[in-house]
């Protein structure tokens, strides 16, 4: 058990808890992103349902076969996640080395997304989820072509076409239909599902990024945790433990996922994705390499946006923070300045999948931090950056939670940033 997790020490603790029947019904896996929390939660689900005591990763019992393909009816996932960069990375791996293990890697990366749209948890009268139905049915159709029961497609061009079609559909599914925060209706449906008798030994509900629940959803979830149904295990994951409601924290046992050393991450990338990390890259950077907009373009878009804000503020008679222009100058180089914010959105390919928007805002924050690190920023300048940072925080939720378009959010943000100069 846990053989598929590389160098994650918490697995020893979980293994011991499982072998000694001490595993609690509600757990919180916390730690930074890309440290194996979801992989571990899925492995816990497989182990608990396995019909053999050793519960090896390669076990061929019917339950493990279904769990490895992430298609066991006793497993559900709710919550948001950036799924498509992992799907793209896994697709590239499968295409470069088409074999059983890489096909599973690709299939599992897709299921990690589609499992969040189970008919058991989503309400199709919600427009967002109704939009998911045609995408899901297209994905299922394509998946039949690479089903583990079939021989692997030998024609590389045909395989590439299938993989590309699946990735496109997954991106549409995530961009159009995966809510950033879990709606209360999904928690209510999950509660009903959790009270149904399992097909096998144990049911598992994974609540991914559980800190992103809205208040109503948190309270509804708290009720399930107060009286967890028999045969039910809840695994919550978060990279922001501090954002979890204390009442939820008091009802779960916490398991800390430590940040793995560089050599372990390099091993994950070489062993699982048959690739290698570049200098200074972590696992998240590796996945981001596969996004439709490369990280360098996202950084350029951030510099161009700040340059736009400063130029327009100067036109309004405001003064620019002294350190920032030279930093922007270095990043923009010979690239043309943008005259309209729509130019930024085009550079970011309309911010689809949504993770591109969040990476763009992180790049803006990084630029401000670089300006502070020069040691030459004045107190007034630092005060402006602090206001801007909180505006950037609001811009994440404007798009993710309130469905305001990235362009409208940028327009508002540029005016608000200019006003605070
Ligand atoms: Zn088994």
What does this structure look like?
The chain is mainly alpha-helical. It folds into two domains: 10-288, 3-Layer(aba) Sandwich (Rossmann fold), CATH 3.40.50; 295-419, no CATH class. Helices cover 56% and strands 6% of the residues. A five-stranded parallel sheet has the order 2-3-4-1-5, with helices on both faces. The protein is globular, with a radius of gyration of 23 Å. It binds zinc ion (ZN).
- Total helical elements: 19
How does the helix and strand content classify structurally?
A: mainly alpha
Query: What is the CATH topology assignment of the largest domain?
Result: Rossmann fold
Count of spatially separate domains: 2
Helix content percent band: 55-70%
Strand tally is: 5
CATH superfamily of the largest domain: P-loop containing nucleotide triphosphate hydrolases
- Widest beta sheet: strand line-up: 2-3-4-1-5
CATH class of the largest domain: Alpha Beta
Overall pLDDT confidence: 91
| Biggest pleated sheet | 5 strands, parallel
The distinct ligands, each listed once, are: zinc ion
Strand content: 5-15%
Distance between the termini: 57 Å
Query: What gyration radius follows from the Cα positions, in whole Å?
Result: 23 Å
- Low-confidence segments: none
Instruction: Identify the overall geometry.
Output: globular
């Amino acid at each position: 058990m846990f053989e598929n997790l590389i160098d994650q020490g918490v697995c020893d603790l979980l293994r011991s808890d499982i072998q000694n029947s001490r595993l609690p019904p509600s757990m919180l896996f916390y730690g930074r992103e890309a440290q194996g929390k979801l992989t571990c939660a899925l492995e816990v689900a497989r182990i608990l349902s396995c019909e053999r005591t050793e519960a090896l990763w390669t076990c061929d019992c019917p339950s493990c076969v279904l769990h490895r393909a992430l298609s066991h009816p006793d497993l559900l996932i709710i919550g948001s996640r950036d799924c498509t960069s992992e799907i793209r990375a896994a697709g590239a791996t499968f295409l470069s080395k088409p074999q059983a293990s890489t096909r599973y890697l690709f299939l599992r990366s897709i299921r990690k997304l589609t499992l969040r749209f189970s008919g058991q948890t989503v309400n199709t009268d919600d427009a967002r989820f109704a939009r998911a139905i045609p995408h899901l049915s297209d994905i299922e159709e394509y998946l039949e072509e690479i089903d583990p029961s079939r021989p692997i497609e030998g024609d590389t061009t045909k395989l590439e076409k299938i993989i590309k079609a699946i990735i496109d559909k997954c991106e549409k599914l995530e961009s159009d239909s995966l809510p950033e925060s879990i709606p209360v209706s999904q928690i209510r449906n999950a509660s009903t599902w959790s009270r149904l008798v399992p097909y096998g030994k144990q049911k598992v509900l994974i609540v991914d990024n559980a800190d992103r629940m809205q208040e109503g959803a948190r309270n509804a979830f708290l009720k399930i945790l107060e009286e967890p149904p028999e045969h039910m295990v809840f695994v919550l994951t978060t990279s922001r433990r501090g954002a979890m409601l204390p009442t939820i924290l008091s009802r779960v046992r916490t398991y800390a996922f430590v940040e793995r050393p560089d050599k372990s991450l390099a091993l994950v990338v070489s062993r699982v994705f048959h690739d290698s990390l570049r200098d200074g890259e972590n696992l998240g950077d590796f996945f981001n390499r596969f996004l439709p907009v490369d990280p360098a373009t996202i950084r350029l878009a951030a510099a161009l946006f700040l340059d736009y804000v400063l130029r327009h503020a100067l036109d309004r008679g405001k003064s620019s923070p002294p350190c920032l222009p030279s930093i922007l100058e270095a990043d923009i180089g010979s690239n043309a300045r943008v005259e309209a914010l729509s130019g930024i959105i085009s550079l970011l390919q309309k911010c689809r999948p949504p993770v591109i928007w969040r990476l763009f805002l992180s790049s803006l924050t990084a630029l401000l931090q670089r300006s502070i690190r020069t040691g030459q920023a004045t107190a007034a300048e630092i005060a402006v950056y602090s206001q801007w940072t909180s505006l950037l925080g609001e811009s994440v939720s404007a798009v993710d939670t309130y469905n305001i378009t990235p362009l409208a959010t940028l327009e508002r943000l540029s005016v608000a940033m200019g006003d605070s100069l």
